[in-house]
Task: structure prediction
Amino acid sequence: MAEIASHLLDFPPANADRLSPEEYDKRIKTFYTSLANISPSKLAAVDGDRDLLEVIDPTTNTISYAFVLRSRIESQYTIKNKSTQVENAIVQKAILFLNNFDPLQARYLRDQLKLFAEWLCKQVKSRANLHQHAVAAVRSSILRLDPSGGTLTSSHHHFLDLCLATRSFRAALPVLDRVVYSFPANKATTTNIDGRFACSDHTDSSSFITESSGLTTRLDASDVHEYYLMGAMIYIGLRQWKDALLYLECVLASPTSGQPTGLMVEAYQKWVLVECIVNGRVADASKIMNQATSKVVKGCSKAYDSLAQIFARQETRHLRAEISAGTSIWFEDGNSGLVQELVTSMPRFSVINMQKVYSALPLSTVAEWLEQALDQTHAFIENLIVTGALNASIELRNGPDQGAVLRFYSNRGSGPNSKSEQELTANLVEQTRRTNEMMGHVKLADRRLVLTKEYIDGLRKRMRSKEEDGPANMDGLENNPEWSAYQDEDIMIDA
Result:
């Protein structure tokens, strides 16, 4: 028993930071195998005598801590009358681990890391006092393993599901606000550009987060659709309409083999409503979806398209009547709240439309057109100005018969929403930075593509065709400096 307890502290070695990637990979795999060969009953017995999780440090001894924690979790499955106190203690240990594990060692945990996250998500839904801590822990596990958050995993899916179940919308933003640039690939189809080992320095996380790594389960199209749909629902809950619109479009723009899924229909219905809230009208859906998909989803969403048409015409009374008539539809689809947002949003677009025609209007006239009390209109306009939705000002005139005037500004160079040259430059620099970052991921994805076996086989066929049929451009790769810079070296490595 003492030997097992001592062995749990054998990794990492004192010289771990001086080991080569190859040596580190060999050592940690050997250690993992040695722990896997310890019978669960022996490990549980040692843990019962010593309380190993009080001895092992989750940051230093991540592999060992994970094995003991999993042993405790699995032991609960065989107990009929579970102790709430014991279960809560295990939940606390899981939270501690997910917040503090070593990201490098965690790459070798196989399926254990995602199992802890999934288990924790299930456990805490009925424990309201632990919601905040559990959400933070699962989020931490995603971003500790992959600080970029760029590779979508099954843990992302469980995390958003937990955030929706506990209404922890704002807590989801550190994950949602990161751009997903890759999905887990089968190890057999990936190329190790940055090195053969999980512990190597990788340009992006898709090199070590693969289906065969165990760090995620296989994701299919419906998983991807559901992730973006849940993300959109969280943004809707936070009233971040433009972000919600982007996530809904990610669902609609996804390629499909055959008929669109029910998730795509749900996304389209929400997209129509959010489009109205953001832009006052619905854009051409054919620019997002292919014709066949668009035809099906629109056929299932005629009531929503009808609402959008009425909203675009600014027919307030007609809109209210249509909403009332379709109450059961909106309720069954889970869109009652969004539909009511149309009524709230319509006055905003009415005022914006006034700006297109008038340079100034008496505030009393605006109130009359909006069918609101003067004080209510005054507060409403001030809110639009403060939130940046309207570039205008309310001028108070002197004199007993002089009412307030709403003055519009036609450009961003004047008015309360005007920006200085420095602010415009800063915005441009930040946008350029994001674009360059995205281009880096696109180039890396292209590089991985041209190094896959399927692509190289196709390239060889085209080269043979070139010899037989005359010059060909091979899709422009011969003239691509980035391809020519690494093709010989990497093809040799792949071979």
